[in-house]
Amino acid sequence: MITLYSYPELFGVADNNGYGLKVFAFLRLAGLPFTHEHIFDASAAPRGQLPYMVEDGETVGDSAAIIAHLTLKHALTLDAGLTPAQRDTALLVTRLLDDLYWVMSYSRWKDDAFWPAFSAALQREHPSLTDEGLQKARAFNFQRYHYQGIGRYDPEATYARGLADLRVLANLIPAEGYVFGPKPTSIDAAIYGFIANIYFFRIETPLRQFVMAHENLVRHCTAIHAAIGCGDGSIPPSRV
Question: How confident is the model over 110-121, as pLDDT tens digits?
Fold first, then answer.
């Protein structure tokens, strides 16, 4: 049995991190049975990063490596029909999502305009989290942002970068179907992992405002959400 270890859910999304949700969606689309363990502590993970998976005593970290491993081991056909050009496009989009990740994370942990709402949501849905623990996590993320570079940007420049990423996705995703046709592939799972973590989060960042204004992004996100058995794509009401 496959066990996926990733961050906990938030706002009704199965993982509040784009990479873990990407793997979750891939597993559901591929029809592989698995158990999902939600954790905050990544110290036992390969390279200290979530998500990771364990199957038959073998541990694999990194979302792309997990998908490649499962595809080979289980002879999965989700991407079997892709052309070389489509595979190249999928890789380019994957790298773009890596860039979008930093802006999404910045909007939650660093931007003082949205940090109070994000931290309150975390504590509301996960009462074991303490103010002290969240402040330590925030300080750690500040260091990550500084060394990565995004932490040296002001908010306006940061969001300009993320909106440029989202604009590419809005231009790529069709009004009907999925990125490469009528059936979803792994790149649709990857895009969902990040867009769902913007769309379903009831925190009005510039990223969410952009997504809400583009019907094709919302349609794609809610279609994958329904396809993997997570609901009809409607946004649950706020809890106070």
Answer: 999 999 999 999
